[in-house]
Design a protein that fits this description.
The complex is a heterodimer. Chain A has no helices and eleven strands. By secondary structure, chain A is mainly beta. In chain A, strands 2, 4, 5, 6, 9, 10 and 11 form a seven-stranded mixed beta sheet that branches. Chain A has a four-stranded antiparallel beta sheet with strand order 1-3-8-7, with no helix packed on it. Chain B is mainly beta. In chain B, strand 5 and strand 6 form a beta hairpin. Classes of the chains: A mainly beta, B mainly beta. Chains A and B meet through strand 4, strand 5, strand 9 and strand 10 of A and strand 5, strand 6 and strand 11 of B.
């Protein structure tokens, strides 16, 4: 089983460039999430989706946009990258089970903005 | 808003020592779940345990045990007889209905 797959795994951008991170899950999960991980900060929620066609803001949404056009895919976009967006990005999904379902994570995408 | 505090930024122990990782949370939810995740040096996030807000029974799984005390809003994690392979960052997580809030993590270093 592939589980949760993130592409690309690594990317280097220049300030002002745009890019899209793709997250794909094959577990038919309703809920999908984008987190960023920075040293000493834990994982912080950027945006999330509770189903196809829906998105919502998390704790640190500024500078990012998302789309969930298909249930299995959750895209994270950076329209104009900034050095402050240098981070490791994790996508995760969980079942439609309210509080109980644990998160299944992708392997992470390391983004560097110069 | 939920908040998860892991006051211990880094803990260093020698192999075979017992170690407890502290987790304190704040929530307005009456129903919630708490999780622990492990992130080894390779970077992946590994689910360890889930506990619901109505179940205060302690749980033991091999060398791992968890102590949930609702009265003190704590969900502590103990590793007995630590091993070098336990070296990782450990995250305590609060789950509300839609979102999950992570603590900042505790880095555990187990030396031989």
């Amino acid at each position: 089983n592939a589980g949760v797959t993130q592409t690309p795994k690594f990317r280097v951008l220049k300030t002002g460039q745009s890019m899209t991170l793709l997250c794909a899950q094959d577990m038919n999960h309703e809920y999908m999430y984008w987190y960023r991980q920075d040293p000493g900060m834990g994982l912080r929620l950027i945006h999330y989706s509770v189903g196809e066609g829906t998105t919502a803001k998390g704790e640190v949404p500024d500078g990012y946009n998302v789309s969930r056009l298909k249930k299995q895919n959750f895209l994270l976009g950076l329209e104009s990258a900034a050095p402050s967006q240098t981070s490791v990005y994790f996508c995760a999904s969980r079942t439609l089970s309210g509080y109980t379902g644990e998160l299944f994570f992708g392997e992470g995408s390391r983004l560097t903005v110069l | 808003a939920q908040k998860v505090t892991q006051a211990q930024t880094e803990i260093s122990v020698v192999e075979k020592e017992d170690v407890t990782l502290d987790c304190v949370y704040e929530t307005r939810d009456t129903t919630y779940y708490l999780f622990w995740y492990k992130q080894p040096p390779s970077g992946e996030l590994v689910f360890l345990i889930r506990r619901n807000s109505f179940d205060e029974q302690n749980e033991i799984s091999g060398r791992y045990s968890w102590n949930f005390q609702k009265s003190t809003s704590s969900f502590n994690f103990t590793i007995t007889a630590s091993q070098v392979v336990d070296s990782a960052v450990y995250f305590c997580v609060h789950s509300g209905y839609s979102t999950l809030t992570f603590g900042k993590g505790t880095m555990l270093l187990v030396s031989p």
